[in-house]
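Amino Acid Chain and Its Fold in Token Form
===========================================
Purpose: to set a sequence beside its fold so the mapping can be learned.
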Amino acid sequence: MITILNKHKTFAATGGCVFDKNKPVVVFVHGSGLDHRCWALQSRWFAFHGYSVFAPDLPGHGLSAGEPLSTIEATGRWLVKALNTIEASSIHLVGHSAGFLVALEAVGGLGDRLKTLTAVASSASIPVSDLLITAAESSAAEGADFMLRWGFGSQTHAGISAVPGMQPIAIARQIISGNPLATDFKACHNYCAGESRISEINIPSHVILASEDKMTPIKFGLELASSLKARITQIDKTGHMLPIESPKRTLDAIKAFIIEHTN
């Protein structure tokens, strides 16, 4: 699906089905250095089970043109504009890692169109180490190598894959190496409005945690869930890159919650 936003081409995956604004819309927001490809399984399931899917590549990522946005706040405003453009009227918002911070910034602009909010491997703030930022500034590929050492759980590093014949670390490296990782890291590191945004939220919320998450440790996810009064799902033996590393269990957690809150 191609739309034009701020005079730039924007690509969004629709899960393999034609987008229909009259259906409930599940919006998948990717994290730092990623794009729509990280949501491949999740977006396809919803598209073929009564929902429309909007999984955008943020500006300068994947197949979307334009300069990458330098702040979470600006990206949140961009997301609201995108959802206004496609005339989505019943929205379920799902964000992975920094994508959830973007979702937090978008909540206020969506009003009663927003039905649920789901955080995947995230927290109210995500400081990024200087080591990671420096590596990403050198090159996205170098930053990806550092990120992927910390981003996956022990089983994936041992060569175990949830998708037979495919290696999640290699898939993630290919995606991240072509995206503006340093810009994303800096935007994420500088974001400090999360707690304020959370205090304004009063819709059904869900926090999906990874037991081996080293980038947003589980204790911070639990604090996020407490602040949101959210449902908690913990996925064991997996790390920060949940949508890619544990796609089926992540999908199961997302769909159970959204189906329950679909009119």
Notes: The chain is about 45% helix and 15% strand. The first helix runs from residue 40 to 47.
